[in-house]
Structure formats: structure tokens, C-alpha cells
């Protein structure tokens, strides 16, 4: 019930907090009883709630469709997901994602940082800077150029210039360093606690998890740059590891947000299935990789197709509209209350509502499994550690998070957990396992494909453009309203700085 109340009020609080930044314009005809400010605790609740929801919402769908973890399907009229899968993603389609990041998440986080400075509460500033860095990294990865150095000044600058993605990355690294200093401050009047929907609990319990997240985000930032500057990436990761930095060391450190079984408080994957049934299916690229290894995560990830057959089938872009595929299951939607689906069809398919899910599965944003796969890849390139050990640890962490039995995990690792062949072969093995483990993690599968070319994906037969996107169009609302925005991209072939040719 406590988490449910947090969901109920957090978005209202975020709106109130934003009003406070414009108070000079609201002095006339505003009731003195109106609330124009909000406590730091409530603004932070709003920020963590928004980031958790958005991690499993539109940005996840765009990138999961492009990276072919998921597929748009359905029957009858063409759906949005079918259009996005064939790369028909226009600037106007991205307005909501962009606005949510800047006008809600980042604005709330900036207010937390400002309040923390005036209230002598550096622990709040540190946690907010980590979430701000995470959000800006996603922005740079998806669009390349974006407002950064002149952003978040509220009415002080409503037309911020765009920074290059490499400048944003440098700023993100600085932000993470500042955050670690802040969260390790010996005194802080206030500290995040049960009001946070991410790492909720006492500060003594959550503090090391925030620090581990900051350092693991640094690893993600550095491995992204391995294609452009491998030597620099290896040197930076070596320095970070040898510094004694804390990293995630179990699934309990996963950067994720949990949900509750209540209307509009269930996770966004499940809500999308209820609101837009029959539009989102697992992709054959993912399912086929798992079928080839008889992956024991499949019963948690997907429903069977045909139902009761023990088989799993994914959809492909350009397929004729159909329900004749497996569906997204417990891992992303939460446990079921009926073990047998309602009314399987004669062809073995089931509808989106055939199972009753509780919607409590977490939205995962960076996991211990991903940490291990980053370390495995970095070790191949010459960074500290044994690639084989980290590779197997990543598989084990992912399977444990999915609820796979220990005996099945051991058998899978015995059959598939040995890196072999050339360096490229080993990178492929690591990234393919990471691709499976990161099912539901926004953006990262697309990032890995752009860096490494793995897993191999094919342009859908009905694609609007000849090439898989390397970045997204700028949101049309930003082009229209910000005179300092760059010209709209000619296509989605434009690469972010680390996606070197």
C-alpha cells in the first residue's frame, strides 16, 4: 500500500515542483492557498517514479523493436508498433519521450539538486545526479546532439543550444564523480529513504547501492566507447577497477523499480498489453537464439506456441499480421493467477488477456548480469579480470533473476558457457547472452548492436528505410519550438560519436 500511495501522488508532486520554477509569473490571480513548492522528499519520489515508468515505456518499445528483441504484430488495421518496426519513426513520434525526459524527469532531478544545495542535503544531490547522468546518457545514445550545458535553467533559458554527444558523455562522467562525492558526505540533513521507489529503504542500506550504480554506469559509459577508442576504454576501465571502486555484486543491487498490483500502478509492459492488446510480441531474433540453446529462461520470458507444445515462436517485421506466436510472459509482466490460459485458440494461439498477470514485475534498467557481461567484454580487450569467469557469472545472474532452478543453470552453463574461437567469436557469444539477459532493458540491446554488430539482425522486408537506424530523428516539437535546435536529420543513418565507422 505504501508503494501504491507513492505512485498516486508522485506525478502530482512533480507538477507542483515545476510550478515553483515559474513562480515569478504566477503572482497575479493566484490563490495564496495554492501550493507552489514541494519538499525535496516528494520531488525525489516523483523523479524516481517517472524514471521507473519511462524505463519500460515508449523508449523501451522503440529500441526493442529496432534491436529486434520485440516485434509489432496484431490483426486488422496496421498498428503503431508495426510501423515502428519497419522504421517508420518520425520526429513527432518522439515528442512524448523527449518531453518526459526533459520536462519531468530531468526537471525534477534538477530541482532536487538545487534544493539539496540550499538545505545541506548532499545525499539527495548525489542520488539525483546519478539518475540525471543515467537519463542524459540515454538521450545522447538515442539522438546524439541534445541540450545539455544550457539545459534545465527553466525560465532562465527556454531555447538551449544542443551539445555534441561526446560533450554530453564527458559531462555525464563528471556528474557521476560528483555524485559519488555527494553520497559519501559525512553529514546530510536529509537522505533518500522509503520515499524513493528505487533503492527504497534506510540510507545506510541504500547508500552503497547508489554508489555501486554510479560506478557500474561508468562501466556502461566506457564500454560504449570501445568501438571508437578501444585503448582508451581499456585504460579507463583498468583505472576504475584498480581504484577500488564499488560495483554491483549481486542481483540485489539491480537498478530497477518494482510495482504493485493495483490499477495504474502495475508495470508499463503489462499496462501496454492491457491498453493496446495484440500489438507487441517477442521477436524471432531473440526467441530463435534461445531456442537454439534450449534456454531455460523461455518459460518465464514467453508463452508457448502452439500452447501446450513446449515450443516457442517469435515474430518478424514484415510478417503477415497474426497472433500465431509466443507472447511476452511472466518475466516482464509479473506472476499469473491462472496457470492455464483462458480459451486457447484452435491454432494454438492465445490472446493478450488469456493469462491474468499481477503486473508487479520490475522495470530493469541496469542489472548485475549486465555488469558481468561488460566486465567479460572488457577483459577480452585487456582490462582486468577473466572474461570466462565474468561471462558465466552474467549468465548465472540473469537466470537467477528469471527464477531458473540451479540445476538447469549449471547444465546450461556447462553446455554454453565456454568462450571459444577468435576474439570476434567471443564477443559475439558475450553480446548474444547479454542480448537475452537484457530483455526488457531499454536502449542497451540497440547500443550493443551498433557497437559490435551482434546479434546479427536483418532489415525487415517492409522497412521504410534501407538501413537499421543508428540514431533517432530529433523530436519535432523541439525543432518547431527551439530556434537553437539543429536542422532535422535527413534520415536515421546519422551516428552518435561512439558509433564510429
Question: Brief overview, please?
Answer:
With 501 residues, the chain is mainly alpha-helical.
Structure description:
With about 500 residues, the protein is mainly alpha-helical. The chain has a domain at about 45-70 and about 80-190 and about 200-245 and about 470-500: Serine Threonine Protein Phosphatase 5, Tetratricopeptide repeat (Alpha Horseshoe). About 50% of the residues lie in helices and about 5% in strands. The chain has helices at about 1-20, 40-55, 60-65, 80-85, 95-120, 120-145, 165-185, 205-225, 230-240, 270-275, 285-290, 300, 330-335, 370-380, 385-400, 405-415, 425-435, 445-450, 475-480; strands at about 70, 145, 160-165, 255, 280, 365. The strands form three sheets. Strands 1-5 form a two-stranded antiparallel ribbon. The radius of gyration is 22 Å and the shape is globular.
Amino acid at each position: 500500500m505504501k508503494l501504491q500511495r507513492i505512485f498516486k501522488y508522485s506525478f502530482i508532486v512533480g507538477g507542483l515542483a515545476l510550478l515553483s520554477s515559474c513562480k515569478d509569473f504566477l503572482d497575479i490571480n493566484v490563490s495564496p492557498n495554492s501550493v507552489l513548492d514541494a519538499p525535496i522528499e516528494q520531488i525525489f519520489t516523483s523523479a524516481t517514479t517517472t524514471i521507473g515508468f519511462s524505463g519500460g515505456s515508449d523508449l523501451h518499445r522503440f529500441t526493442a523493436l529496432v534491436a529486434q528483441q520485440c516485434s509489432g504484430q496484431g490483426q486488422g488495421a496496421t498498428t503503431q508498433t508495426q510501423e515502428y518496426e519497419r522504421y517508420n519513426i518520425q520526429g513527432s513520434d518522439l515528442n512524448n519521450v523527449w518531453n518526459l525526459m526533459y520536462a519531468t524527469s530531468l526537471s525534477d532531478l534538477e530541482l532536487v539538486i538545487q534544493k539539496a544545495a540550499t538545505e545541506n542535503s548532499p545525499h539527495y544531490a548525489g542520488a539525483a545526479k546519478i539518475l540525471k547522468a543515467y537519463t542524459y546518457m540515454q538521450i545522447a545514445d538515442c539522438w546524439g546532439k541534445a541540450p545539455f550545458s544550457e539545459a534545465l535553467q527553466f525560465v532562465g533559458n527556454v531555447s538551449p543550444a544542443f551539445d555534441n554527444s561526446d560533450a554530453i558523455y564527458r559531462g555525464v562522467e563528471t556528474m557521476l564523480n560528483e555524485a559519488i562525492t555527494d553520497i559519501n558526505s559525512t553529514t546530510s540533513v536529509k537522505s533518500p529513504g522509503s520515499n524513493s521507489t528505487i533503492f527504497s529503504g534506510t540510507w545506510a542500506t541504500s547508500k552503497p547501492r547508489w554508489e555501486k550504480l554510479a560506478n557500474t554506469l561508468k562501466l556502461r559509459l566506457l564500454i560504449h566507447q570501445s568501438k571508437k577508442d578501444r585503448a582508451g576504454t581499456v585504460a579507463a576501465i583498468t583505472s576504475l577497477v584498480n581504484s577500488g571502486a564499488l560495483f554491483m555484486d549481486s542481483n540485489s543491487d539491480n537498478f530497477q523499480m518494482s510495482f504493485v498490483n493495483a490499477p495504474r500502478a502495475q508495470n508499463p509492459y503489462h499496462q501496454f498489453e492491457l491498453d493496446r492488446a495484440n500489438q507487441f510480441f517477442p521477436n524471432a531474433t531473440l526467441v530463435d537464439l534461445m531456442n537454439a540453446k534450449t534456454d531455460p529462461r523461455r518459460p518465464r520470458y514467453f508463452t508457448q506456441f502452439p500452447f501446450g507444445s513446449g515450443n516457442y515462436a517469435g515474430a518478424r517485421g514484415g510478417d503477415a499480421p497474426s497472433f500465431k506466436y509466443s507472447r511476452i510472459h511472466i518475466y516482464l509482466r509479473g506472476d499469473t493467477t491462472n496457470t492455464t490460459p483462458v480459451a486457447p485458440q484452435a491454432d494454438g494461439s492465445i490472446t493478450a488477456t488469456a493469462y491474468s498477470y499481477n503486473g508487479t514485475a520490475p522495470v530493469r534498467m541496469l542489472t548485475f548480469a549486465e555488469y558481468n557481461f561488460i566486465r567479460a567484454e572488457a577483459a577480452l580487450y585487456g582490462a582486468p579480470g577473466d572474461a570466462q569467469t565474468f561471462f558465466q557469472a552474467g549468465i548465472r545472474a540473469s537466470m537467477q533473476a528469471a527464477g531458473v532452478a540451479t540445476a538447469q543453470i549449471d547444465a546450461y552453463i556447462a553446455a554454453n558457457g565456454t568462450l571459444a574461437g577468435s576474439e570476434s567469436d567471443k564477443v559475439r557469444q558475450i553480446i548474444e547472452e547479454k542480448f537475452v539477459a537484457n530483455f526488457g532493458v531499454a536502449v542497451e540491446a540497440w547500443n550493443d548492436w551498433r557497437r559490435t554488430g551482434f546479434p546479427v539482425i536483418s532489415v525487415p522486408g517492409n522497412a521504410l528505410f534501407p538501413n537499421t537506424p543508428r540514431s533517432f530523428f530529433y523530436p519535432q516539437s523541439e525543432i518547431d519550438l527551439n530556434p537553437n535546435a539543429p536542422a532535422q536529420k535527413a534520415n536515421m543513418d546519422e551516428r552518435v560519436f561512439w558509433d564510429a565507422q
